[in-house]
Design a protein that fits this description.
About 35% of the residues lie in helices and about 10% in strands. The chain is globular and about 55 Å long. The strands form three sheets. It has a seven-stranded mixed sheet, with helices on both faces. A three-stranded antiparallel sheet has the order 9-12-11, with helices on one face. A two-stranded parallel ribbon has the order 1-10. With about 400 residues, the chain is an alpha/beta fold. The chain folds into two domains: about 35-50 and about 280-370, Aspartate Aminotransferase, domain 1 (Alpha-Beta Complex), CATH 3.90.1150; about 65-280, Aspartate Aminotransferase, domain 2 (3-Layer(aba) Sandwich). α2 packs antiparallel against α9 (about 265-275), α3 runs parallel beside α9 (about 265-275) and α4 packs parallel to α5.
């Protein structure tokens, strides 16, 4: 029997939110959903736009069906042209991939040599991708973790860790904590990357959910020390399609393209990408972002301001309880959350912002003593509530314009 690479024995499969709906347990989603299929599960474990997908996405899928007898365009020419217009960069500075996860691995295959720098509590695929390129029979890639006091990424601490040749992964906003670094903070890290000649990988998978995201981000065309990753999967709630893109210098993109498998982006994903990158997609995002922000205010009021996020999800400390046990108990109530043990936060759960009536269901159960030791921080409005009625105003905020639904 041929032995597998030794590097693989050092790698743990990265857990993710969501899960199979056919009752299959385990796997990459990190949790079993073994249950009666007739029972409804409200899934707070995935950080998707709760108002998607919009109808024009389904129109694009139907149109793409006519192309399934042909190979997809490996260069994604039409989609890159759309993205180029949206981002204000050249087409050769764009690489389309099957979601941010594929692009993260392409970055690692192309640029990770000796060290990868990443925050203590962040998206797990960065470490997995970096370790996969470790050398056999020799020193593997060193993972340099940056501490997060108060669960905050501090740019000055990232800068202190950076050395020549490093690849630095920053998720902005960070998963699972929801912290969004400002333009000045990102610039501080980028300037150090340029000074020591390191590569900053800025993963903006959740940027579309940030209310005041800066638009004048550092332009990748001006530096070979920056790769920006964007996701269309989460913004438009199409995780089954897998779609994202990278922006960097033309030379960096050329190297990543060499490492990419041919035809990795399906005709369906490319057609949907062309549909969402444009005025209809921007209008959908603007409208749903406003609704999500209103929902966040209600959630934060319920917690008396004790939790905060810049993204569309929260990391919540369940106190002395085990996050995995809280997750199991909530699942018995028909609610799926993400426990954060794999992020190095065993007393935290992560939950996304969904539609208001669904958010109220989660709040109702989180207020119960058996779920959390944090009841004292909750507002009197919700404490010991048995049922929370949804007002007409809430129903209105959950209604999209007919042309965007």
């Amino acid at each position: 029997m041929v032995k597998p690479r030794e590097t693989l024995s050092e790698i743990e499969i990265c857990e993710h939110g969501g899960g199979r709906r056919d009752g299959c347990g385990g796997g990459r989603d990190g949790g079993s959903r073994r249950r009666d299929k007739s029972r409804k599960i409200i899934d707070f474990s995935v950080n998707l736009n709760p108002y998607g997908p919009p109808d024009f996405v389904f129109d694009a899928v139907r149109e793409a069906a006519a192309e399934i007898s042909e190979y997809p365009d490996s260069d994604c020419c039409a989609l890159r042209a759309r993205i180029s217009g949206r981002e204000g960069c050249r087409e050769e500075e764009i690489l389309v991939g099957a979601g941010a996860s594929e692009l993260i691995r392409l970055v690692a295959l192309s640029f990770v040599k000796k060290r990868a720098v990443l925050p203590r509590h962040t998206y797990g695929e960065y470490e997995v991708a970096a370790r996969l390129v470790g050398k056999e029979g020799g020193a593997g890639v060193k993972i340099e973790r940056v501490e997060m006091p108060g669960l905050q990424v501090k740019p000055e601490q990232v800068v202190e860790k950076m050395k020549n040749g490093d690849v630095v992964f920053l998720c902005n906003p960070n998963n699972p904590t929801g912290q969004y670094l400002s333009e000045d903070e990102v610039r501080q890290v980028l300037e150090e990357a340029e000074r020591v000649d390191a590569l900053l990988v800025l993963d903006e998978a959740y940027r579309d959910f940030v209310e005041k995201a800066f638009s004048q981000r550092p332009t990748p065309t001006q530096t070979g020390n920056l790769v920006v990753l964007r996701s269309l999967t989460k913004s438009f709630a199409v995780p089954g399609l897998r779609l994202g893109y990278a922006i960097s210098s033309a030379e960096n993109i050329k190297m990543m393209r060499k490492a990419q498998a041919p035809w990795s982006v399906s005709v369906f994903a490319q057609r949907v990408g062309q549909a969402v990158v444009g005025s209809a997609g921007e209008e959908f995002l603007n409208q749903t972002r406003r609704k999500i922000e209103r929902s966040k205010k209600r959630i934060e009021e319920a917690f008396a301001g004790s939790i905060q996020t810049d993204a569309n999800f929260y990391a919540f400390d369940v106190g002395n309880a085990s996050a995995r046990e809280v997750k199991r108990r909530l699942l018995r109530c028909g609610i799926l959350v993400r426990d954060c043990a794999s992020f190095g936060l065993p007393s935290h759960i992560r939950f996304s912002v969904r539609r208001d009536e669904e958010n109220e269901e989660l709040l109702h159960f989180l207020l119960e003593k058996e779920f959390s030791e944090k009841r004292e921080v909750l507002s009197p409005l919700h404490r010991n509530a048995h049922h929370i009625a949804v007002s007409e105003q809430v129903r209105e905020t959950n209604t999209l314009s007919p042309e965007l639904h």
